[in-house]
Amino acid sequence: MRMWMVDTSILCKNHLMGEYREHFAIAGLMRLERRFDGYIRNNLVEPKSIESRFEDIRDEMLCRGYEPKKEFVPPDISYLPEEHQNYKVDVQSSQDDLLSRCTFCRDNYDAGLVRNTDTYKKG
Ligand SMILES: [Zn+2]
Question: Which of 9, 10, 17, 113 is deepest in the core (most CB within 10 A)?
Fold first, then answer.
């Protein structure tokens, strides 16, 4: 499970759909009040951004003509330790990881599809 947090326009179809689905899985674990220590330690989730990130992913899917239909109910994250609630994914590190493992995302990146470079750096 991972919130890549990179510009959604560079995500290939698999990674875009994957991140969409994983938001439901992450939210499910949050509803069970699971701890996210490992995910935080490994730079994989950004709890406070789950709703806005989901909307970005959904917008990107709509933009590409896909039809995301499942209703997303944002989870209550108040049970998490404060430093986990406020954790910010290191986007550069996440992007480096993504581009090193997916040639399709890499191609999008190289093609300069990045539309809103600063979206996820604002905090
Ligand atoms: Zn990809």
Answer: 10
Residue 26 has a CB neighbour count (10 Å cut-off) of 25
**96 alpha carbon to ligand 1 midpoint, in Å?**
12
Measured CA to CA, the distance from residue 56 to residue 20 in angstroms comes to: 10
Residue 30 alpha carbon to ligand 1 centre in Å: 26
Mean pLDDT by 10-residue block, N- to C-terminus, for the chain (123 residues)? 96 97 98 97 98 97 94 97 98 97 95 60 36
Alpha-carbon distance of 14 to 57, in angstroms, equals 12
Ion ligand 1: residues, CB < 5 A:
12, 15, 102, 104-105
Q: What is the pLDDT of residues 31-51, one digit of tens each?
A: 999 999 999 999 999 999 999
The domain locations on the chain are: 8-110
**pTM for the whole structure:** 0.89
